[in-house]
Amino acid sequence: MTMTLRAMLGATVALTLTGAALAETTITVATVNNGDMIRMQGLMDAFNAKHPDIKVEWVTLEENVLRQKVTTDVATKGGQFDVMTIGTYEAPIWGKQGWLVPLNDLPADYDVDDLLPAIRGGLTVDGNLIAAPFCGESSMVIYRTDLMEKAGLSMPEAPTWAFIKEAAAAMTDKGSEVYGICLRGKAGWGENMAFLSAMSNSFGAKWFDMEWKPQFDQQPWKDTLAFYLDLMTNYGPPGAANNGFNENLALFQQGKCGMWIDATVAASFVTNAAESTVADKVGFALAPDNGLGKRGNWLWAWNLAIPAGTQKEDAAKTFVAWATSKEYLALVAEKEGWANVPPGTRTSLYENPEYQKVPFAKMTLDSINAADPTKPTVDEVPYVGVQFVAIPEFQGIGTAVGQMFSAALAGSSSAEDALSQAQSFTTNEMTRAGYIK
Q: How far apart are alpha carbons 320 and 312 in whole angstroms?
């Protein structure tokens, strides 16, 4: 009797302890400091009400710092983070390495088939969904409708680079600090090289041929860089070599840019009257092309992934499913308005009549659908990725080349020297890594 009672008491204590442990499951989420992710942290009451047994702690970091920390943690299975915000670049590489927990068993109401095919494709490895998209983007032309009209021009829905140059020249008024075009110049594989790699695709350029030999010594890259430097030198703002997404966003909102070719997610910021002095004078168009079959736009998503080193997989999956769900999109719409819903992830969002009223919704979807990461270039290439090459070595190579091209924009190097350095450096790195025999 005593033994039985003791066993029963023991079981009760064990159950109590288990319940306590469940009530105190804490997951750590590493995320980037962009507007959509910051907004989610302010909406956590809805998650907490539904899942009182899961506590979420945030580590919010600038993009480059985030990459360093999560890369170290996932590679070593350090277990520092239970959910990581990663990009479309990391997802296929880490998925192939077995560093991420597959997400094939999300709840039925998650509706994985609702994810946009272009975005879902970049997050699928060997048939497994290895990250859930939080917000997706392409890039497009964002322009001042009043300045375009003043210049006597009309922006086509699908402009050419020749038109962009003509418009930039006509819209530039340096005496009034109005510059015809603002483009990324800050060095980085995800900064100026994201823009230039996507742009180069429309010029017929490519990073590598089918033998992984770099192509910076070929005419298409020479044409790309020459056109970019001409645009920026004659019609761009001063100090452009230091400007990335955030700097150009500020310039556009202050009324200093006639055109800006950048991420589709910028649309909600430049049309927000509380933040933008030109909110009611903004138009959108597809990224430019040269008639070769590829536009100069990229494809990207910020995604939530679960590292294989976590000890809290179930709680992490619960959070990931909520944060990337239709339910979350509806929550943001209710609290912040449809224009501020994280874009670019779900077909149903773009079929929603309320969202279709958002002025940039259709152009965002058209831009995403215009990018094909599996066939990013005019010629055949051995890699996937539109504005990046999905190999582990690309982060280092892309940033180094970005520094060379940024120096050319700053005037401390010529275009010829920058391309020569890029060709030599990339050849050496790819040979060392074993791609070039």
A: 12
Q: Report d(CA 327, CA 359) in Å as an integer.
A: 23
In terms of domains, do 409 and 350 share one?
no
DSSP for 200-254 reads: HHHTT--SB-TT--B-TTSHHHHHHHHHHHHHHHHHSPTTGGG--HHHHHHHHHT
Helices 394-410 & 192-202, crossing angle to 10 degrees? 90
Write the CATH number for 60. 3.40.190.10
Q: Is the pTM of this model over 0.70?
A: yes
What was the pLDDT predicted at 344?
94
Q: What is the pLDDT of residues 24-54, one digit of tens each?
A: 799 999 999 888 899 999 999 999 999 999 9
Q: In angstroms, rounded to a whole number, what is the distance separating the alpha carbons of residues 192 and 137?
A: 17
Query: Both 9 and 93 in a single domain?
Result: yes
CA–CA–CA angle 30, 111, 263 (5° rounding): 50
Q: How far apart are the first and last CA of the chain?
A: 77
Predicted local confidence at residue 316, as pLDDT: 98
Q: Where in the sequence is the domain holding 155, given as residue range(s)?
A: 139-299+375-432
Residue 342 sits in the same domain as residue 398:
no
d(CA 330, CA 394): 37
Q: Are residues 163 and 127 in the same domain?
A: no
Query: Quick one: 262 and 308 in the same domain?
Result: no
The total number of structural domains in the chain stands at: 2
Task: Convert the pLDDT of each residue in 103-159 to its tens digit.
Answer: 999 999 999 999 998 899 889 989 999 999 999 999 999 999 999 999 999 999 999
Same domain, 182 and 251: yes
Chain-centroid distance of CA 113 in Å reads 21
Q: What are phi and psi of 341, to 5 degrees?
A: -70, 140
194 inside domain: yes
